[in-house]
Amino acid sequence: MLVPRLIVPLLLAALAPIYTGPTYYGTIEFADGRSVTGKIRATQQQEQLGLFVPKEGANRLIPLSDIRRLQFNWRQNPAGQQPYFLQLEGDIQVTLVTGEVVQGAYFGNAPGAREFVVMPDNMEQLAIVLNDTKRTFAECIRSIDFQTVQAPEPPPAANASLTGITERADYRLNADTAELLSKPGGAAVAKLHSGVPLKHLDQKGDWVKVRTIGQVEVAGWLFRSNLLPEK
Question: What is the pTM of this model?
Protein backbone atom coordinates (compact mmCIF):
# COMPACT_ATOMS: atom_id res chain seq x y z
CA MET A 1 0.00 0.00 0.00
CA LEU A 2 2.69 2.44 1.00
CA VAL A 3 5.05 3.06 -1.90
CA PRO A 4 8.53 4.61 -1.89
CA ARG A 5 8.94 8.33 -2.39
CA LEU A 6 7.95 9.43 -5.88
CA ILE A 7 11.22 10.99 -6.91
CA VAL A 8 11.67 9.76 -10.45
CA PRO A 9 10.83 12.62 -12.83
CA LEU A 10 9.09 10.33 -15.31
CA LEU A 11 6.88 8.95 -12.56
CA LEU A 12 6.03 12.45 -11.37
CA ALA A 13 5.12 13.39 -14.91
CA ALA A 14 2.88 10.37 -15.17
CA LEU A 15 1.14 11.38 -11.95
CA ALA A 16 0.60 14.97 -13.08
CA PRO A 17 -3.00 14.41 -14.27
CA ILE A 18 -3.90 13.27 -10.74
CA TYR A 19 -3.60 16.73 -9.21
CA THR A 20 -6.70 18.29 -10.74
CA GLY A 21 -9.41 17.78 -8.14
CA PRO A 22 -10.10 19.40 -4.77
CA THR A 23 -7.44 19.16 -2.08
CA TYR A 24 -8.35 17.79 1.34
CA TYR A 25 -6.21 17.92 4.45
CA GLY A 26 -6.13 15.19 7.04
CA THR A 27 -4.43 12.37 8.90
CA ILE A 28 -4.17 8.76 7.72
CA GLU A 29 -3.50 6.20 10.45
CA PHE A 30 -2.32 2.67 9.71
CA ALA A 31 -3.13 -0.46 11.70
CA ASP A 32 0.42 -0.72 13.04
CA GLY A 33 0.26 2.77 14.57
CA ARG A 34 2.02 4.74 11.84
CA SER A 35 0.34 7.94 10.72
CA VAL A 36 0.87 10.64 8.11
CA THR A 37 -0.69 14.10 7.97
CA GLY A 38 -0.91 16.30 4.91
CA LYS A 39 -2.81 17.17 1.75
CA ILE A 40 -4.88 14.40 0.20
CA ARG A 41 -6.05 14.21 -3.42
CA ALA A 42 -8.13 11.45 -4.96
CA THR A 43 -6.78 10.04 -8.21
CA GLN A 44 -8.61 9.91 -11.54
CA GLN A 45 -10.89 12.80 -10.48
CA GLN A 46 -13.02 10.41 -8.42
CA GLU A 47 -14.61 12.61 -5.78
CA GLN A 48 -16.96 10.02 -4.28
CA LEU A 49 -16.53 6.94 -2.11
CA GLY A 50 -18.54 3.90 -3.21
CA LEU A 51 -19.50 1.28 -0.61
CA PHE A 52 -22.16 -1.33 0.05
CA VAL A 53 -24.53 -0.40 2.89
CA PRO A 54 -26.39 -3.49 4.23
CA LYS A 55 -29.07 -1.41 5.93
CA GLU A 56 -30.01 0.09 2.57
CA GLY A 57 -29.36 -3.15 0.65
CA ALA A 58 -27.53 -1.22 -2.06
CA ASN A 59 -24.33 0.53 -3.05
CA ARG A 60 -24.03 4.13 -1.95
CA LEU A 61 -21.88 6.91 -3.37
CA ILE A 62 -20.79 9.51 -0.81
CA PRO A 63 -19.00 12.70 -1.93
CA LEU A 64 -15.59 13.02 -0.27
CA SER A 65 -16.48 16.61 0.63
CA ASP A 66 -19.28 15.23 2.85
CA ILE A 67 -16.94 12.94 4.85
CA ARG A 68 -15.30 13.87 8.14
CA ARG A 69 -13.83 10.46 9.04
CA LEU A 70 -13.40 6.98 7.57
CA GLN A 71 -12.75 4.07 9.92
CA PHE A 72 -11.96 0.48 8.92
CA ASN A 73 -12.39 -2.77 10.86
CA TRP A 74 -10.20 -5.28 9.02
CA ARG A 75 -10.89 -8.99 9.51
CA GLN A 76 -8.35 -11.77 9.21
CA ASN A 77 -8.93 -14.88 7.13
CA PRO A 78 -7.08 -17.89 8.66
CA ALA A 79 -7.23 -19.67 5.28
CA GLY A 80 -4.67 -17.26 3.89
CA GLN A 81 -6.70 -16.07 0.90
CA GLN A 82 -7.43 -12.35 1.27
CA PRO A 83 -5.58 -12.32 4.62
CA TYR A 84 -7.27 -9.07 5.69
CA PHE A 85 -10.59 -7.99 4.28
CA LEU A 86 -13.81 -6.02 4.90
CA GLN A 87 -17.05 -7.96 4.95
CA LEU A 88 -19.60 -7.18 7.68
CA GLU A 89 -21.80 -4.18 8.39
CA GLY A 90 -19.72 -1.54 10.14
CA ASP A 91 -16.39 -2.76 8.78
CA ILE A 92 -16.36 0.56 6.93
CA GLN A 93 -17.68 3.33 9.15
CA VAL A 94 -18.21 6.71 7.50
CA THR A 95 -18.84 9.76 9.69
CA LEU A 96 -20.29 12.63 7.68
CA VAL A 97 -19.78 16.32 8.42
CA THR A 98 -23.47 16.39 9.43
CA GLY A 99 -22.78 13.86 12.19
CA GLU A 100 -24.55 10.97 10.41
CA VAL A 101 -22.70 7.65 10.58
CA VAL A 102 -22.98 5.28 7.61
CA GLN A 103 -22.21 1.61 8.32
CA GLY A 104 -20.73 -0.04 5.24
CA ALA A 105 -19.68 -3.66 4.73
CA TYR A 106 -17.23 -3.41 1.84
CA PHE A 107 -16.42 -1.19 -1.12
CA GLY A 108 -19.34 -1.34 -3.52
CA ASN A 109 -19.30 -2.06 -7.23
CA ALA A 110 -20.19 1.54 -8.04
CA PRO A 111 -17.21 3.62 -9.19
CA GLY A 112 -15.62 5.58 -6.38
CA ALA A 113 -12.37 6.84 -4.96
CA ARG A 114 -10.01 3.97 -4.16
CA GLU A 115 -6.63 5.61 -4.59
CA PHE A 116 -5.19 8.76 -3.03
CA VAL A 117 -1.94 10.65 -3.25
CA VAL A 118 -0.89 12.11 0.09
CA MET A 119 1.48 15.08 0.26
CA PRO A 120 2.63 15.29 3.88
CA ASP A 121 3.91 18.46 5.49
CA ASN A 122 7.50 17.32 4.92
CA MET A 123 6.76 17.36 1.15
CA GLU A 124 7.27 13.64 0.58
CA GLN A 125 4.60 12.01 -1.58
CA LEU A 126 2.90 8.71 -0.82
CA ALA A 127 0.44 6.61 -2.81
CA ILE A 128 -2.42 5.19 -0.73
CA VAL A 129 -4.64 2.44 -2.13
CA LEU A 130 -7.92 1.27 -0.56
CA ASN A 131 -9.31 -2.14 -1.47
CA ASP A 132 -10.74 -5.23 0.17
CA THR A 133 -7.53 -7.25 0.20
CA LYS A 134 -4.34 -6.45 2.12
CA ARG A 135 -1.26 -8.65 2.20
CA THR A 136 0.07 -7.51 5.58
CA PHE A 137 -1.52 -6.03 8.66
CA ALA A 138 0.76 -2.99 8.43
CA GLU A 139 -0.75 -2.11 5.04
CA CYS A 140 -4.27 -1.83 6.46
CA ILE A 141 -5.54 1.71 7.01
CA ARG A 142 -7.23 2.14 10.38
CA SER A 143 -8.71 5.57 9.73
CA ILE A 144 -8.67 8.68 7.56
CA ASP A 145 -9.58 11.97 9.24
CA PHE A 146 -10.43 14.74 6.82
CA GLN A 147 -9.65 17.76 9.01
CA THR A 148 -10.81 20.34 6.52
CA VAL A 149 -12.58 20.30 3.21
CA GLN A 150 -11.21 22.19 0.19
CA ALA A 151 -7.91 23.24 1.74
CA PRO A 152 -6.99 26.68 0.38
CA GLU A 153 -4.01 27.15 -1.87
CA PRO A 154 -1.11 29.16 -0.39
CA PRO A 155 -0.85 32.81 -1.44
CA PRO A 156 1.69 33.56 -4.19
CA ALA A 157 5.21 33.87 -2.83
CA ALA A 158 5.60 37.21 -4.62
CA ASN A 159 2.86 38.79 -2.52
CA ALA A 160 4.52 37.76 0.72
CA SER A 161 7.90 39.08 -0.35
CA LEU A 162 6.45 42.41 -1.45
CA THR A 163 4.44 43.08 1.68
CA GLY A 164 6.90 41.55 4.14
CA ILE A 165 3.93 40.76 6.41
CA THR A 166 3.69 37.47 8.24
CA GLU A 167 0.93 36.67 10.73
CA ARG A 168 2.09 36.36 14.33
CA ALA A 169 0.89 33.44 16.44
CA ASP A 170 -0.74 34.12 19.81
CA TYR A 171 -0.39 30.52 21.04
CA ARG A 172 1.23 27.17 20.37
CA LEU A 173 -0.55 23.90 21.06
CA ASN A 174 0.74 22.67 24.43
CA ALA A 175 -0.24 19.00 24.00
CA ASP A 176 0.82 16.05 21.88
CA THR A 177 -2.54 16.20 20.08
CA ALA A 178 -5.85 17.94 20.66
CA GLU A 179 -9.18 18.13 18.89
CA LEU A 180 -10.38 21.52 17.71
CA LEU A 181 -14.10 21.74 18.53
CA SER A 182 -16.97 23.45 16.70
CA LYS A 183 -18.06 25.01 20.02
CA PRO A 184 -17.12 24.55 23.70
CA GLY A 185 -17.73 20.85 24.33
CA GLY A 186 -18.94 20.39 20.73
CA ALA A 187 -17.99 18.11 17.86
CA ALA A 188 -14.41 17.87 16.61
CA VAL A 189 -13.62 19.74 13.40
CA ALA A 190 -9.86 19.11 13.26
CA LYS A 191 -7.06 17.22 14.98
CA LEU A 192 -4.09 19.41 15.93
CA HIS A 193 -0.53 18.36 16.72
CA SER A 194 1.99 19.69 19.21
CA GLY A 195 3.43 23.13 18.49
CA VAL A 196 0.96 24.18 15.81
CA PRO A 197 0.71 28.03 15.69
CA LEU A 198 -2.68 29.49 16.62
CA LYS A 199 -4.35 32.90 16.42
CA HIS A 200 -6.67 34.13 19.22
CA LEU A 201 -10.25 34.86 18.10
CA ASP A 202 -12.49 34.77 21.18
CA GLN A 203 -12.79 33.41 24.73
CA LYS A 204 -15.61 32.09 26.92
CA GLY A 205 -14.44 31.19 30.41
CA ASP A 206 -11.77 28.50 30.10
CA TRP A 207 -12.56 27.94 26.42
CA VAL A 208 -10.61 29.84 23.77
CA LYS A 209 -11.56 30.17 20.11
CA VAL A 210 -8.50 30.01 17.86
CA ARG A 211 -7.56 29.70 14.21
CA THR A 212 -4.67 27.78 12.75
CA ILE A 213 -2.06 29.83 10.89
CA GLY A 214 -0.59 28.71 7.61
CA GLN A 215 -1.59 27.10 4.37
CA VAL A 216 -4.64 25.38 5.88
CA GLU A 217 -6.70 27.56 8.23
CA VAL A 218 -9.32 26.03 10.53
CA ALA A 219 -11.14 27.79 13.38
CA GLY A 220 -12.54 26.20 16.53
CA TRP A 221 -12.43 25.99 20.32
CA LEU A 222 -9.76 24.58 22.66
CA PHE A 223 -9.57 24.34 26.44
CA ARG A 224 -7.19 26.98 27.78
CA SER A 225 -4.82 24.42 29.37
CA ASN A 226 -3.95 23.19 25.84
CA LEU A 227 -2.55 26.60 24.86
CA LEU A 228 0.94 27.98 25.44
CA PRO A 229 1.07 31.78 24.94
CA GLU A 230 3.73 33.00 22.55
CA LYS A 231 6.32 35.31 24.11
Answer: 0.56
